Amino acid sequence: MLDTVVIPLLKIAVLVNAVLVAVTFLVLMERKVIAWAQSRLGPMRVGPYGILQAIADPIKLILKEDITPVKADRHVFTLAPIMSLVPALVVFAVVPFGPDPLYYIGDINVGLLFIISVTSIGVYGIILGGWASNSKYPLLASLRASAQLISYEIAVTMTLVSVILTTGTLSLVGIVEAQQESGIWFAFIQPVALVLIFIGGLAETNRAPFDLPEAETELTGGFHTEYSGMRFALFFLAEYANMIVISAIVVLMFFGGWLRPFPNIAFLGFLDLLPAWIWFVGKVFLFLYVFIWIRATLPRYRYDQLMSLGWKVLIPVAIGNLVVTGVFKVVF
Amino acid sequence: MTDDTKPGADAPGEAGGAVSEPAAGPAPDPPAAADAAPPKAAPPKPEPAAAARPKSEPAPPAKPAAAEAARQAPTAASAKPAAPEKPAKPAAAAKPAAAAKPRPKPKPKPPPEPPKGPPDPPPPEGMESPAAVAAVQEALPDAIEALSYWVGDWTLIVRRERLLDVLELLKTHEAAAFDYCSDVTATDWPPRERRFDLIYCLYSTRLRHRVRVKVRVGEDDAVESVTGLWPAANWLEREVFDQFGVNIVNHPDRRRILMPDEWQGHPQRKDYPLEGPGELLMENPQDWLRVRNLPDEAGTDREPGPDTEIE
Amino acid sequence: MTVPAPRVSTTQFDTNELVINMGPQHPSTHGVLRVVLRLDGERVLDADCVIGYIHRGVEKLCENRDWTHIVLLTDRMDYVAAATNNLGYVEAVEKLMQIEVPRRARYLRTVLAELQRIASHCLWLGTHAMDIGAMTVLLYAFRERELVLDLFEEFCGARLTYNSMRVGGLPLDVPPGWDRKVRSFCDLMEGKLDDYETLLTNNRIWLKRTRDVGVISAEEAIGLGLCGPPLRGSGVSRDLRKDEPNAAYEEFDFDIPLGTRGDTYDRYLIRMEEFRQSIRIVRQALDGLPEGPIMGKVPRLLKPPAGETYHAIESPKGELGYFLVSDGKSTNPYRFRVRPPSFCNLQGLKRLVRGHLVADVVALIGTIDIVLGEVDR
Amino acid sequence: MAEALLFYTLAALILGLGVMVVSARSAVHSVLFLVVNFLLVAVLYVTLNAEFVAVIQVLVYAGGIVVLYLFVVMLVNLKKAPERFSDPRRLARSGLLLGGVVLALIVVVVSSSLRAGMASEGTLSGFGTPFTSGNTEQLGWVLYTSYLIPFELASMLLLVAMIGAIVLAKRHLGD
Amino acid sequence: MLEITPLHYSLLSAALFMIGVIGVLVRRNVIIIFMSIELILNAVNINLVALSDQLQDLAGQVFVVFVIAVAAAEAAVGLGIIIAFYRNKETVNIDEIQIMRW
Predict the structure, then answer these.
(1) What is the ipTM of this complex?
(2) Do D62 and A146 touch (CB under 8 A)?
(3) What is the C-alpha to C-alpha distance for residues C247 and A176, in angstroms, rounded to an integer?
């Protein structure tokens, strides 16, 4: 009973809270990093160096009036943000933060597939949010978002297959262990796949330069134009949780998860003094930083350019990568 | 060309400033001007007419002005009886006296200034008109009502019926080549019979010179749209229609542009109340209702100014 | 609003056509412009601009103000290029009254106008880039614009609406040391321009978003009455600073950048080059700044002789024209008319956006660089 | 005990949502119920030790096909016109009747086969490929060996369907 | 009762199947009819997976994979037809879809 119910429930509670807190600080980090990139200071008023802004923001969102437009479909309007956030959190069930079973909730043998399939549910939140608002800009945005998500999902999944070919397992723990055995991060074995997944991940999380569904200068805020208060906060949480998910996947698959750099070189052993989960979280935040950095730098793609990039570049390259990987696998 | 008129305005002796660009402007000037020499005799004819106009005008204007003053007065007067009932709305407190006080003020408004017409001074004796103007004088002598020159700007005053002919010639003629319509605007001279001056500011991107074409139109005279020649005139003419109520016809999209579609009246007219119709209308709610119930003019029918409506 | 749509869909969403309102509350219509878009999917079939939301009747107001007071009102039209508006107006009055302006005043006016051009272009660059999604450029460009505003503040005490010119000259001379500050700003600005260009000019996404977007041929641009950078982007060499030089422009050496393709990218490059040319002009003007009075001989009470004139200058947005009529009797203009460049350029939007996507609409609104205060007046 | 509880809960939800799918007035609500229905069916698969199928169910059905439905529903927005049942009572009656017949048939078949001994205990015989809980690898193996030709045919079918859908939905060819 | 046998799954499957059939027969909206068909396919899949578990035979799961593939194909083509049809007739009511060509 303790092992099968209480401990996992405890772990879930801790993890969900950790993710939510991480998200609030991620928002602060984004504001700070972008501010520095733009020669500003960013939030400075709440707490020392604005650190408590991470708490003030959610409090503000929770306390704000939650408006439902008169013509909106009430139930769907409420359901959409939930449908958007839940898959983003569920994914963490199979993300291992360390080698020990203590650090993950479950390691299922189709872990990677599980992540792909659950994240594909997230699109409902966006579509339904846009539709239920009963407003034109959100509708356009949600159509954009769903087309974008579905297209890039294909590219990302195709690329994941080539990684799976290298590892021979779908279990995330297994993938990291495979990197430990080979003594090298897969980033060096599958560099093309890394780039593809990173680009696809940017697109799937609706981040710049692919932030078309919420391009505020075009669609006045995208699918959550009509949202406010807590329901908006849920969309917000979902977006940032998804960012963390994508970073986690990239780190697990290409950067050795919790492994230190060069896991098999003995004289770097002192690096193991840091606990495994710190390595993992550190790498994840490094990638989150890259996400933010890109947002501060690049302009936005246009919708048709985005689609043609997805279909005409990423997917063919992913297939090519898959074929090359397969050939190598057979030949060597 | 306009360039050589420039010095007068700004920097004497620096007329050749535009040398950086193809100096096509001044070059064709002398021959064209020579061509224009014979018809040069024409301007004197319209001159007296133009000169006579402003003189003859001062007389009639007095009447409408007086009429207007008279009209204003009744408004204020009619508003007064309404006042006792009104105070309830704006200032429920004990301010009926104070509320009534500001009203008399508009009455001793300074008497309307004597109205005037544009002077449109003719070019000085012996001055040669530029090639473009000369070309029009030669080709369409009957279309030109007058010719004016002032601080370096040439203005062709043309008959309303021949407006399009003149403009088309100006656009297509080799020596004119006015391919760019800088501005279309109007001026309102209420006492005059044809109260509006409609002004087209033209420019040639090739020869880099300017000319103004002016046409005098009455309140109900139809003016052909020039959007066919210069698509640029589209919005400019809409603005003239919106602000002055000049009856521009054959316009592809004749709607109000700056004012809301359901606006009554044309704000840039000289007889339009400066403070807008609002305050006058507020005086008497009945008037407000009446204006509200007027047929929606929305860019179709021109409405006389709101002041006449209120009365 | 009547939308000239033969078949406006009555259903809420139709597979064929969708009519959406962009503005007047939209983040990238630069104020209160409202564009009614008729869409097929995301493709724009037709666009109709609805303007007038901040129409204040400036022309009518000016007709009831003293000739001197009007300078103040011209500030409020193109409020990001107030000095240029002042310049156009005072020069028009000077032309009407045949007043000669001292050389030093003309030089300083040129400096002010060019600094204003830099400030206005900074604002354009920032918002244009922001519309296309490059948000950092916005902050960078505004950072430099602040410096220009500081310079103006030191000169006339105001940061936005300067009221910085008078008929016949300038209200006051520049403070001592001002020219040194302008010079150091010019040096700094040149470096910053390279920064902007690093972020944008060769950026692939920026190229994708602006190349071949909103292409317009020279003939069409002339016909539509475009002016300023949009016209020069199509390769028409028309810059009033060269063609009808005002202030002291004929004494300086500068180039007019011209585009070849007439697309958004060309217009972007032209404005980037205009930054540099402006800096060049400012430097020349400061180098040759003559000593002398800053006010010409002007009567205390301005009462131009009866007559009318049209005077146009090259504002950052294009041809800014003033058509003034004086009746010779009163101290007000009888007719005060502005030919607003933004208004005329905005007219071309309908033509530019046709066939493009919704995302391009914001890019195109950005590329024609409008200020609604000037469009609506 | 827990297993039974789980099954009954799932079964009740699946059936209830099925009814909602069929009876919802708004097509979008229908689609929503369908998604949840499919997710629950996926959970049911997990209880039946078919993890791979469960994941595929979520990925392809819930994440793909139903999104397509949602797309189409939004494109041909049906909110305005409530559906007209041309003769609701007759149709409902015939539907219920037919449904009842089908149900009866199935019950008969199932119970008779159960009586024949299938339900008695465990595995029926040695044929086929026995599997354990983590069966993804085996499933893949079987798919690419014994069922290679059907698999290829299925992918062919998908390709054809894809081309067909594009041709059908594209407004003007060569647009 | 507390022991879950294949019979339970079969009954669940049959009930879901019935719901699907009723949906097909009763509803007039083509899209909902399509969704009902998806329900029917799912009912079949439940049966297949349950029996696969019962018989310890992977063939059932393999068939489920095929069924899903076919369902995807069916949805793609069917919805393509609906879109094409809607564009011409502006309806998705099956009663109004009664001619083979227009």
Answers:
(1) 0.74
(2) no
(3) 72
